[in-house]
Amino acid sequence: MADGLGARLETPLFEQLTLIGVGLIGSSLARVASRKGLARRIVAYDNDPDVRAKVERLALADVVSPSPEKAVQGADLVILCAPVGAMGEIAKTIAPHLAPGTIVSDVGSVKEAIIEAVAPALPGHVHFVPAHPVAGTEYSGPAAGFATLFLNRWCILTPTPDIDPEIVARVESFWSAAGANVEIMKATHHDLVLAITSHVPHLIAYNIVGTAADLETVTQSEVIKFSAGGFRDFTRIAASDPTMWRDIFLNNKSAVIEMLGRFTEDLIALQRMIRHEDGDGLFKLFTRTRAIRRNIIEQGQETAAPDFGRGVAKDTDEER
Amino acid sequence: MADGLGARLETPLFEQLTLIGVGLIGSSLARVASRKGLARRIVAYDNDPDVRAKVERLALADVVSPSPEKAVQGADLVILCAPVGAMGEIAKTIAPHLAPGTIVSDVGSVKEAIIEAVAPALPGHVHFVPAHPVAGTEYSGPAAGFATLFLNRWCILTPTPDIDPEIVARVESFWSAAGANVEIMKATHHDLVLAITSHVPHLIAYNIVGTAADLETVTQSEVIKFSAGGFRDFTRIAASDPTMWRDIFLNNKSAVIEMLGRFTEDLIALQRMIRHEDGDGLFKLFTRTRAIRRNIIEQGQETAAPDFGRGVAKDTDEER
Ligand SMILES: NC(=O)c1ccc[n+]([C@@H]2O[C@H](COP(=O)([O-])OP(=O)(O)OC[C@H]3O[C@@H](n4cnc5c(N)ncnc54)[C@H](OP(=O)(O)O)[C@@H]3O)[C@@H](O)[C@H]2O)c1
Ligand SMILES: NC(=O)c1ccc[n+]([C@@H]2O[C@H](COP(=O)([O-])OP(=O)(O)OC[C@H]3O[C@@H](n4cnc5c(N)ncnc54)[C@H](OP(=O)(O)O)[C@@H]3O)[C@@H](O)[C@H]2O)c1
C-alpha cells in the first residue's frame, strides 16, 4: 500500500480499544488502529472538552466518551496516552470499571515511575503491559497525529516478570500491526536508554535556546536571523510540549542526572581541549561521531537527505 | 524562476571570479555565479587534485587552474573558500599575483582570526572584504553544493573601517544577486553571534554523540535504534566536516569559551531544578523556548513541517 502500512487485518486483534488521552500519540494510535482494523471498535476519552470535540469532528473514534469510567467499559485493550504525571490518577479512576482479563497499556516516555504509579492502582484481574513508542514530532494535540507515525520506529515494552508472556505477545502483535518494531526490556534499562537518546537531548536543546535568549551581547533578533548555522536544529525539539517534558524530567530524575553528569564531564574536557588548542583531540572526536549518524541512516531511523531534506519539505509546504 | 533565484543579470558584476577551494561552499558559489551570470568568467583552484578533476567533470568553472598563483591572474574578485586554518597561507601565496584594485573576500566561519591572518599578507593595492554566508549542510566537497544554498540565508560582511564603502557595496551586490540577505557588522561581534548560533551548537552536538558512544550501560546499537527520540537531530550537525570544525574552534576560542561557560552555568541550574523537582521552573523554561522557534519559522529561516519534513524527504529519496 502507498502509505507503507500494508493491508488491513482480516480479523481485528481486539474487540474494543479504549484510548485515554487523544493528543499526538493517542490520535495517531486511533488513526492507525482504524486504518489497519486493529480493533472492532475504538472508544476515546480526553479530559479536555475541546479535544473531545475535535476528535468527534475528525471522526477519529467510533465513540467519544464523556468520562474515563464510561470509556473503559467493554474494552479488552485500554491504552493510556496522557502525560506521564497523569497516569496514576487515571489508573485509579478507571480501575473499578475494568473487566477481568482487560489489557491495560500506556505510551508514556518513562517507564519505572509509571509502573510504580499505575500497577498498584489496578485490580488483580487485569494485565498491565507498559509500552513506549519511540516516535513523535514537536507538535501536539489530535490534529497533529497521523497513521504512519509509528512506521519503522521502535516500540519498547517493559512488562514486569509476573505478566503472562502470551499477554505480552498480544500487545506486541498490536504494535507490529501498527508498523512498529518491538523490543522488550526492563523498565530501569528503558529509562537509562531513553535518558541518553531522548531526555538529555531535549534538556540540552531547551537549555541552549534559553541561554541564547538571555544574552545581552547578542540580540534575540540576531539569534533568529543567523540560526541556520546550527542553532535552529535545536529549536525543533525545544518547541515540544512543556507539560509532557516537565513530567518526563520529574519522573526520570536519577537516569537523567546520571547521563547529564557524563555529558557535562565530557563537555568540560572538550572545553579544555579548545583552551589548550588541542587540534588533534578535537579532530579525533569530530571524526568518530560521524560513524554513528551513518549507522542511524543505514538502519532506517533517519533520512540521508542534506539538512534533513528541509528544502524538499519547504517546497511541499509552499505548494499546499 | 522555478528555483527562486530570479533572472540572470544582464551585465556581470565582475569580469573574473576566482574561487580558491571548491568544496560545498566554493562549488555552490560557482553554481550560483554561473546560473546568475555574476561574473564573465569563473576560475577555480583547489589544492586537492581529485576535487579539481571533479570540478572539471561537473563543469563548474570556465577554467580549472593548476595553481593558486595562476588562478588569481586576471581576477577582479577572489573568494577564498578553504578551511579557516588555510586562509593565511593562501593569502601569502596569491599576494604577489593580485592585480591592483582586486577585491579579495572569503567565506570562513570565523572572522577576527581570518582578518588577522589574511589582511597583513595582502598588498596595499587590493581590498579585503571578509564575508561569511550563514548557510550550509552536513555534507562537503564539490558534489554536495547547489545554486540555491544561499537563497534567503544571511551573509555577514565584516569589513575593517579602512575599506572604501563602495567596495563593500560591490561585495554586497554580489551576495544579494546570489540570493542572500546581507548584514554588516564588526568581526568581533560576528564571532560572538556565531559562537552561540553555530559554534556552541555544533560543539554540544559533537559532545553528546561522543558521550553516547562511550556509555557502558547502554549499547551503541540501542543508541542507534532509539535515536528517533531526539538524539538523531544532533547527529546531523555532528556529522559535519572535522577539519572545518577543528579550525573553527581553534580560531574562535575566546567567544566559544565565553558562550560555553554560560551554557554550562544554565545547564547546571537546570539539573538542580530536576534534582529538587522544581516542576514550575522547568515548565517556565520549556514554555519560553517555543517562541524563538516560532520567530525563526516566521522569518523564513526554518520549515514549519513536523520533524523538519523528514517524511517528505524520505519519500523523495526512495523515488530516486
Ligand atoms: N510527543 C511525543 O513525541 C511522544 C513520543 C512518545 C511517547 N509520548 C508520550 O505520550 C503521552 C502523550 O503525549 P502526546 O505527545 O500525545 O501529548 P498531547 O498531544 O499533549 O496529548 C495528551 C492529551 O492527554 C490529555 N490529558 C491530560 N490529562 C488527562 C487525563 N487525566 N485524562 C485524559 N486525558 C488527559 C491532554 O489534555 P489537556 O489538553 O487537558 O492537557 C491531551 O489532550 C505522554 O505520556 C508522552 O510522554 C510522547
Ligand atoms: N559547510 C558549511 O556549512 C559552511 C558554512 C559557511 C561557511 N563555511 C566555511 O567555508 C569554508 C569551506 O567550507 P566547505 O564546507 O566548503 O568545505 P569543503 O567542502 O571541505 O571544501 C573545502 C575545500 O578547500 C580545499 N582546500 C583546503 N586547503 C586548501 C588550500 N590551501 N588551497 C586551496 N584549496 C584548499 C579542500 O581540499 P582538501 O580536500 O585537500 O581538504 C576542499 O576541497 C570554510 O572556511 C568554512 O568555515 C562552511
UniProtKB/TrEMBL annotation, chains A, B:
Record's catalysed reaction(s): prephenate + NAD(+) = 3-(4-hydroxyphenyl)pyruvate + CO2 + NADH
Keyword list, A-Z: Amino-acid biosynthesis, Aromatic amino acid biosynthesis, NAD, Oxidoreductase, Tyrosine biosynthesis
One example of a Gene Ontology biological process annotation: tyrosine biosynthetic process
InterPro entries assigned to the protein according to its UniProt record, in alphabetical order: 6-PGluconate_DH-like_C_sf, NAD(P)-bd_dom_sf, PDH_C, PDH_N, Preph/Arog_dehydrog, Prephen_DH
Keyword Glycoprotein: no
Xref: PANTHER family: PREPHENATE DEHYDROGENASE, PREPHENATE DEHYDROGENASE [NADP(+)]
Full protein name: prephenate dehydrogenase
Organism annotation: Beijerinckia indica subsp. indica (strain ATCC 9039 / DSM 1715 / NCIMB 8712)
